[in-house]
Amino acid sequence: MYVTTDVDTDIEVTGRSSLDEFWVTFRRDRLALIGFVVLVGLALLALAGKAFTEWWVLFDPAVVRLSDRLLPPLTEASSVLSADKRPAFGIYFLGTDDLGRDVFARMLQGSFVSLSIGFVAVGIAMSIGVALGGISGYYGESKFLGLSVDNLIMRFTDVMLCFPTFFLILTVVALLPPSIYNIMIVIGLTGWMTTARFVRAEFLSLKEQDFVLAAKAMGLPERRIIFFHMLPNAMAPVLVTATVSVATAILTESALSFLGFGVQPPDATWGNILSDGKNFIFDAPWLFFIPGSAILVVVLAFNLVGEGMRESLNPKLRRR
Amino acid sequence: MGQFILRSLIQRLALLVVVSVIAHAVVHIAPGEPSEVDPTNPRMKPEDVAKIRAAFHLDEPLHRQYVYWMRDLVSGNLRSFKDGQPVLPKIWNRFLNSLPLFLAATLLIWTLSFPAGIHAAIRRGSGFDRASTFVAYALISIPGFFFAYLLILGVVNAFSVPVIGMRTFGMEDAPISFRAMDRLWHLTIPAMISAFSGVALLSRYVRSQMIEVVSNDYVRTARAKGLEEETVIYRHALRNALLPFVTMFGLMLPGLIGGSVIIEQIFAWPGIGRLGYEAILARDFPLILTINFFAATLTLAGTFLSDVLYAFADPRVRLNS
């Protein structure tokens, strides 16, 4: 520890915790802050989507109304509809698609599905990455089948990095039976390599640091050292990667949808609404522009928040 | 140096073998076989399916199938399941189609992102910096095909740029200069679309790299010596900031295959990405596997190239470690 006597330099001596410190820097980045607000709003929207389309069906995304096809946004429902087919409030907020389904209801349902694809896929990727990276960094020297564990895991990571990711995802998703879980798992299984690499690097450097040596000297159990002392210190870059990876996963899903291997109906995701909408780009542009802009805004928010986090967590990039 | 090159070549060869084994296993173990592409066809009797499987060696154990694949690949006799055409010339032709697209996009990426990134880094926090940050993130965040469609809508009527295929039909007899211009004109929009996200990403890298370098002590020293700001930035900072980008040349090589599926699909570009997509649709295992093998080779060649380039560019790197 060093003592700072000189207060007018850029090093401020305050009693703030590192989380406060992070938040102060993060808040200064206006784009990241806007992104954060958008994400909070999106989380609420996704919950509302789950609630209103499944638990308490106010907006039913699956009702087909052949009398009300391709209506523009804010059109009132036609009077010939029977009562159980009328949309809530009698209005299509975002219009209808080629089967007369309420786009607003589909977007609501899709917000939850799209987000959960992003989060589950990234959850899988990060768990694998942290686990393999951690093992490789901490137990790297132990031997397995005559080779060091570190060597084995890192060579496997190299192997995985050789695959062209999107092509691999496409191949596996196309060969497997179409299911939303397969998509999540495949995106997750192909996205852990960079995480594993830098978690390993973090662990290798943390292992040599004084507080870890001290913890070892105190005779703390290994799992305590790993999970309470080392892992929290290695988490910062993982969180940044996770944030950006959610964005990538949502984009990957929409790209898969475009090629026809995305989430299959009746599940709506923003990706497959967009990819259905491209067939009506002239007749019903809202079917194309609404989901497209929604994906753009959300992915942008994830990326901006990720970048804001990266800048606030990296002292080298911190503004002076 | 020679020893390093030899060792890393051997290492990469071993990796390539492992990659091919895993890819082979994944493709063959996953459900869905070429014989099941048309399961509703009433004329497909079980004995026909068995005949197809026997013809493609699909009824044999996995390791034997791997050996067959490798043997045919090496001897150049590998044939597509779908049409019986030899696989390697097929891939080679499509590769030649993808190459101009890749080269044009790479050229755009490298010429646009450096000025943009350096400018943003030097004037950090300025209007240009913030605007370019935002635009870059918007370009990274937009779904590729959404953006492509928007651009097509905006551009086709305004400039009558062709957005389908590689050349205009019926121009085969035109003089070579006309044909070349026609090819270039067809290349414009697809190359731009594939370049956009690359420009966004790379200019961000350039920016953060420059910012990190500028905050180093030797840059402060250069300023303290009283050097002009121009000299400090372009002589002292930029040269050091450039180092990591030497390696990125190599790392962008695999984009030749993986990054092009969507673009080639949208613009009906008969390239290698689309060949792969068609192979996946047809469950054409030899073609899928060989394209994947090719992509892995490119990736490994890319990392190899970037290691060697880095060693040449940075005297601090010693290769005998």
Can you describe what's shown?
The complex is a heterodimer of chains A (320) and B (321). With 320 residues, chain A is mainly alpha-helical. Helices cover 64% and strands 2% of the residues of chain A. Chain A has one domain: MetI-like (MetI-like fold). In chain A, helix 8 packs across helix 9 (222-258). Chain A is elongated and about 80 Å long. Chain A starts with 17 loop residues before the first helix and ends in a 7-residue tail after the last helix. The model of chain A is unreliable at 1-11 (pLDDT under 50). Chain B has a single domain (87-320), classed as MetI-like (MetI-like fold, Orthogonal Bundle). Chain B has 14 helices and no strands. In chain B, helix 5 (127-141) crosses helix 7 (176-214). Chain B starts with a helix and ends in an 8-residue tail after the last helix. The chains are: A mainly alpha (320), B mainly alpha (321). Chains A and B meet through helix 4, helix 5, helix 9, helix 10 and helix 11 of A and helix 1, helix 5, helix 6, helix 7 and helix 12 of B.
Give a topology summary.
The complex is a heterodimer of chains A (320) and B (321).
Chain A: H1 18-28, H2 30-55, E1 75-76, E2 91-92, H3 103-138, E3 143-144, E4 147-148, H4 149-162, H5 165-175, H6 180-189, H7 193-207, H8 210-217, H9 222-258, H10 270-277, H11 286-313
Helix pairs in contact in A: 1-11, 2-3, 2-11, 3-4, 3-6, 3-7, 3-9, 4-7, 7-9, 8-9, 9-10, 9-11, 10-11
Chain B: H1 2-29, H2 46-55, H3 62-75, H4 87-122, H5 127-141, H6 144-159, H7 176-214, H8 217-224, H9 229-241, H10 243-251, H11 255-258, H12 261-266, H13 272-281, H14 285-313
